[in-house]
Design a protein that fits this description.
This protein is an all-alpha fold. The chain has seven helices and two strands, in the order αααβαβααα.
């Protein structure tokens, strides 16, 4: 089953971000608004205009609201961490550094050097900072020099899906040199059966055309917008 592609409305984030990039404070505020709206809907659904029992829907709305509230609280704390208001341990409990200090480390466990920390790592570092004698830092200090040429794994995965969808479309604009399938036609087997997968040369040609058009950055076949380093 093909992955559903993102709509233009989904891609338009101007309603939730004042600038080009969403801040954690904005994210926390938006999530809290969604939490409130869900709880309002649950309350209103207790007495709908039509006589329909909505107990299951109400319970689901309130459960979802609770999850959203947890995310909002977490993002609010992260906003304070990123602003430098919260002290963080300089290393994990394993002794491994993070942020700029992790660039020269050879951390073998947990996916390699933690140059860009995760949500849970930051929350743990904030907890560990309260240990007696723990050496501390702040997020701005620890991340100084990382730059903005970075995107999340979720963004990379989305760009990969967009690239793969573009390749599927590109394939059908090319004539296949293996089976002579023309533009708009799927590749065929020797016996004339239509194949769901194009021949390798046609696939490679389509990938090369798409990658050149979209750009290429490292292992990610799509360039990161404004990929700059400080």
């Amino acid at each position: 089953m093909k992955t559903q592609q993102e709509t233009a409305t989904e891609a338009d984030t101007s309603a939730v971000a004042a600038g080009r990039h969403l801040t954690l404070d904005e994210l926390a505020t938006e999530l809290s608004a969604i939490d409130l709206r869900l709880r309002q809907l649950a309350r209103a659904a207790e007495v709908p205009a039509s006589p329909v029992e909505l107990t299951d829907v109400i319970s689901s709305l309130r459960s979802t609201a609770s999850t959203v509230r947890e995310h909002a609280d977490r993002m609010s704390l992260l906003a304070r961490i990123v602003a430098g208001d919260v002290q963080l341990a300089t290393t994990f409990n394993t002794g491994d550094p993070w942020g700029v200090a992790a660039r020269t480390s050879d951390r073998l466990d947990f996916g390699g050097p933690a140059i860009v920390p995760t949500v849970w790592q930051l929350l743990r570092l904030a907890q560990d900072a309260n240990r007696p004698g723990c050496e501390t830092t702040t997020y701005p200090e620890a991340m100084d020099g990382i730059g903005i040429g970075w995107e999340s794994k979720a963004a990379s995965a989305r760009r990969r899906r967009e690239r793969d969808a573009a390749v599927e479309t590109e394939v059908l604009t090319l004539e296949c040199t293996s089976c002579k399938a023309s533009e708009g036609e799927q590749c065929k087997t020797k016996s004339g059966w239509a194949a769901d997968r194009p021949h390798a040369p046609r696939q490679r040609q389509a990938e090369a055309a798409v990658d050149e058009r979209l750009g290429y950055l490292g292992a990610n076949p799509v360039a990161v917008p404004d990929a700059l380093t400080q």
